[in-house]
Amino acid sequence: MCDHFSAREALLLLTPEQMGRADRAAMEAGISGSLLMENAGTAVAMRAQEICPHGGHVLVLAGPGNNGGDGLVAARLLAERGYRVRLALLGSREKLSGDAAIAASRWQGGLEKLSAGIDLSADLIVDALFGAGLGRPIEGEVAALVEAVNACQRPVLAVDLPSGIDGRTGCVRGAAFKAAKTVTFFREKPGHILLPGRLHCGEIHVADIGIPDAVLPDLSLKLWRNHPGLWHDVLPVPDVEGHKYARGHTVVVSGPAHATGAARLAARAALRAGAGLVSMAAEEDAIPALAAHLTAVMIKKVDGAQGLAGLLSDARLNAVVIGPGAGVGQATCERVAACLQSEAAVVLDADAVTSFKDQPARLFDAIEARSAPVFMTPHEGEFSRLFPDLAEHADKVEKTRKAAERAGAVVLLKGADTVVAAPDGRAAISARDAPWLATAGTGDVLAGMIAGLAAQRMPAFDAACAAVWMHADAARRFGPGLISEDLPEMLPAVWSQLAAERCAD
Ligand SMILES: NC(=O)C1=CN([C@@H]2O[C@H](COP(=O)(O)OP(=O)(O)OC[C@H]3O[C@@H](n4cnc5c(N)ncnc54)[C@H](OP(=O)(O)O)[C@@H]3O)[C@@H](O)[C@H]2O)[C@@H](O)CC1
Ligand SMILES: Nc1ncnc2c1ncn2[C@@H]1O[C@H](COP(=O)(O)OP(=O)(O)O)[C@@H](O)[C@H]1O
Ligand SMILES: [K+]
């Protein structure tokens, strides 16, 4: 079994502000800032040597702060190792201070003034302009230089972050380098994973620069990269002597006769996610369409919201999905209310979210009154209907956290960088490219997977994170040509790999 704590610790993400606190804590523990910078520059030089042939021509762009200091150290080390290094500095040498000034004093080569027209002919360009200290948008001469570098087709190695990427939000502030590789220090930052930042980083390397892990507990961190190390230890594993009832019973609420497909996708996904039983709750008119397609999934006839409440009063039915194909309106609100009165974990997807557009407080109050978990799975459009005041927030992690706290639910703000947040502030960001997921019905599959894991009593935040990761993994295994029906069929391979990793731990 893996060391759960250390796996989770390795996945922690630090904002630039938290990273500054980690740096200071390390210094208070006796590790000098100058040594941290020396280690950072050493890590940069090592990566530069991987990209650039020995003796090649390296251009280092150094900024006026400590990010520039890292660049100055790397420049010195590369020159010592036989590379031809040019260094262009933003601002004057005299204005450098602290550790960066020490790094500059050790640099024996020439200094060019940084400008948009600088000669870019080099085998490698090291971007050491701004990192954690980016305090405003890049403009004017520096922005023109960034654009010229991006257009010149030479590899860029970014120090800590591609300059112009906000380390907290992943947003481009004015202009940003497109790097082939990024070397960051101690831990990744949210801006490496959130979009568009992730697309600017290239391959990310995390270097140990001597900051001890002992500084972490005092930072009270609650943000992780979404990866199996985060939830592997709480994934449901079937018992050798187990029976289907022990694996939970998921109910999916079907849409009307003309819109049953979405619920069927969710039901199949819940089964493949491991729920022992899955039932479809359907009004009489939808039953013929459902019966023609369903096999392992059972059909339970219900009559309106009251009928649904009656069905869910059986506590063995311990997870329910409502929303896929449900239709927007009062009838869906009533059915959602019936679900929330039950003791089951409830997944609110699609129309179940949108239906509360004009009365979000009614939804939040109903959630507050129950103790079993609630999940909400909005994409940006659905999110903006339920949380209009948060929609324009530039920080995707912060807005998802605020929504989760307000709703009292685990909120999954979907997209290519899906953020999962729990009401207690824990959050995780997905970093797996799976562009094939941009096809109709994949959200319905995700909702079913969450309910399938929740039925097996996986803790709510972990179930949501695991479902998002497994969903993307399934898409990556299938690859081009994926349609939503393919996703549940890829889950056995996803499970097998996860089980193999568990055995290998
Ligand atoms: N000891 C440590 O802590 C360690 C830190 N390390 C390294 O330090 C980095 C953080 O260093 P940092 O805090 O000095 O910030 P940094 O990213 O260099 O930028 C600040 C400078 O840029 C300027 N500036 C900002 N935005 C601008 C803009 N748009 N356009 C123009 N100028 C702009 C800003 O100017 P000001 O706002 O003050 O006028 C200021 O001069 C971190 O990413 C890592 O690489 C490692 O060595 C490990 C040990
Ligand atoms: N470009 C993309 N890269 C990765 N995942 C994506 C991308 N586009 C969409 N997704 C994922 O696909 C799913 C789409 O869900 P949703 O928008 O609700 O679609 P639908 O309503 O058709 O089921 C979400 O899980 C989302 O995160
Ligand atoms: K940089």
TrEMBL record:
Catalytic activity, per the record?
(6S)-NADHX + ADP = AMP + phosphate + NADH + H(+); (6S)-NADPHX + ADP = AMP + phosphate + NADPH + H(+); (6R)-NADPHX = (6S)-NADPHX; (6R)-NADHX = (6S)-NADHX
Is NADP a UniProt keyword of this protein?
A: yes
Residues bound to AMP are K414, G415, A416, D417, T418, G443
- UniProt function note: Catalyzes the epimerization of the S- and R-forms of NAD(P)HX, a damaged form of NAD(P)H that is a result of enzymatic or heat-dependent hydration. This is a prerequisite for the S-specific NAD(P)H-hydrate dehydratase to allow the repair of both epimers of NAD(P)HX. Catalyzes the dehydration of the S-form of NAD(P)HX at the expense of ADP, which is converted to AMP. Together with NAD(P)HX epimerase, which catalyzes the epimerization of the S- and R-forms, the enzyme allows the repair of both epimers of NAD(P)HX, a damaged form of NAD(P)H that is a result of enzymatic or heat-dependent hydration.
Species of origin reads Rhodopseudomonas julia
Q: Record-annotated residues binding K(+)? A: N67, D127, S163
Query: Sorted alphabetically, which Gene3D superfamilies does this protein's record hold?
Result: 3.40.1190.20, YjeF N-terminal domain (3.40.50.10260)
Which residues hold (6S)-NADPHX?
A: 66-70, 131-137, 160, 262, 325, 379, 444
Q: What is this protein called?
A: Bifunctional NAD(P)H-hydrate repair enzyme
Q: Which NCBIfam families match?
A: yjeF_cterm, yjeF_nterm
Q: Which cofactor does it need?
A: K(+); Mg(2+)
Instruction: Please provide an example of a Pfam family that matches this protein in its UniProt record.
Output: Carb_kinase
Residues covered by the YjeF N-terminal domain: 19-217
UniProt KW NADP keyword: yes
Family per similarity comment: Belongs to the NnrD/CARKD family.
Superkingdom of the organism of origin: Bacteria
- What gene makes this protein? nnrD
Q: What Enzyme Commission number does this protein have?
A: 4.2.1.136, 5.1.99.6
- Assembly with partners or alone: Homotetramer.
What does the record's cofactor remark say about binding? Binds 1 potassium ion per subunit.
Name all YjeF C-terminal domain ranges.
227-498
Q: Which regions span the lipid bilayer?
A: none
Q: Which UniProt keywords apply?
A: ATP-binding, Isomerase, Lyase, Metal-binding, Multifunctional enzyme, NAD, NADP, Nucleotide-binding, Potassium
Q: Which CDD domains match?
A: YXKO-related
